[in-house]
Amino acid sequence: MTSFIVNADFPAHRPRRNRRDDFTRRLVRENVLTVSDLIYPVFVMEGEGVREPVPSMPGVVRYSPDTVLEAAKECAALGIPVMAVFPVIDPSLKTPDGIEAVNPKGLVPRVVAQLKDAVPNLGVLTDVALDPYTSHGQDGVIDDDGYVLNEPTVEILTQQALVQAKAGVDIVAPSDMMDGRVGAIRTALEAEKFIYTRIMAYSAKYASAFYGPFRDAVGSAANLGKSNKATYQMDPANRNEALREVAADIREGADMVMVKPGMPYLDVLRDVKQAFGMPTYAYQVSGEYAMIKAAAANGWLDHDKVMMEALLAFKRAGADGILTYFAIDAARILKA
Ligand code: PBG
């Protein structure tokens, strides 16, 4: 039969040769996902024996301090390096200035101390931002017009990071997008001799609608109402600006940088890794998780296959690790 293939390389070059057998597919594989790439985010609330499901995030629960310990032990047993703690704060403790965030006896410092005591080999990461603590759901303190004030917010965030460091946290992760906060936190940590507290900066964090289920989970959605975070989180249209944000956070003392959300921003992740070669993390956020769960629940997607493919895509784009609500599910598959 006459061949109509018009390719100067063909048949010298037949890419399908390497794809023919599993052994060569494995041999030429460029990227792998390992358990060491995973960070497991958890929601924690007061109480005992609590595992309260989050409706918009099937499979995700709100833990109490005792049950989160069980999850931490499971992470450690699976080899997941780090757990990220997000608080669900009692509405009675929420104020316009979110000052509960700096309470040394608050939920987060207590949980951190307990985790480091019981599971010392598991790294613990805490979010530095005020939205779980403010009565208006914004990440900082606001003026009469609802505008988030930069310096007054950075002052509280710095105290919040110090309280977390004193409780023994390994990594603080400012997710607030205030200007200058990484430098302020680094200076304060050094001054207080917390020279090993790592800062994972949410450097390129976009004003994204993909955070919806997270705001349900921590109970900030209703407080936030119709207002948004566009005056401090980044415009989803911008790419160059992400590089400037990351550069600033590195200069200010970040040890690791993050791009958030994940899958819709793989181009940004790629740019950041390529430009700076820093330890770079992707946050596969709540909305990304919810989309996969919803489609899988309908039988429209294969849950495990799509989950593993999405996580691998972060590695291919240049991530050194991924914050993902799938961490335990994925780790179980990787261990099997
Ligand atoms: C709080 C914070 C948010 C997320 C992580 N830290 C929400 C927000 O910025 O509104 C989102 C995580 C997710 O959607 O999974 N500053």
Automatic annotation (TrEMBL):
Catalytic activity field: 2 5-aminolevulinate = porphobilinogen + 2 H2O + H(+)
Supply the EC number(s): 4.2.1.24
Q: Which Pfam families match?
A: ALAD (PF00490)
Could you list this entry's UniProt keywords, alphabetically sorted: Heme biosynthesis, Lyase, Magnesium, Metal-binding, Porphyrin biosynthesis
Q: What processes in GO biological process is this protein linked to?
A: protoporphyrinogen IX biosynthetic process
Catalytic residues per the record? 205 (schiff-base intermediate with substrate), 260 (schiff-base intermediate with substrate)
Indicate the secretion signal residues.
none
> Lyase as a keyword?
yes
Which SUPFAM superfamilies does this chain map to? Aldolase
Q: Could you state one GO cellular component term attached to this entry? A: cytosol
Give the similarity note. Answer: Belongs to the ALAD family.
**Record-linked PANTHER family:** DELTA-AMINOLEVULINIC ACID DEHYDRATASE
Tell me the subunit arrangement.
Homooctamer.
Q: What is this protein called?
A: Delta-aminolevulinic acid dehydratase
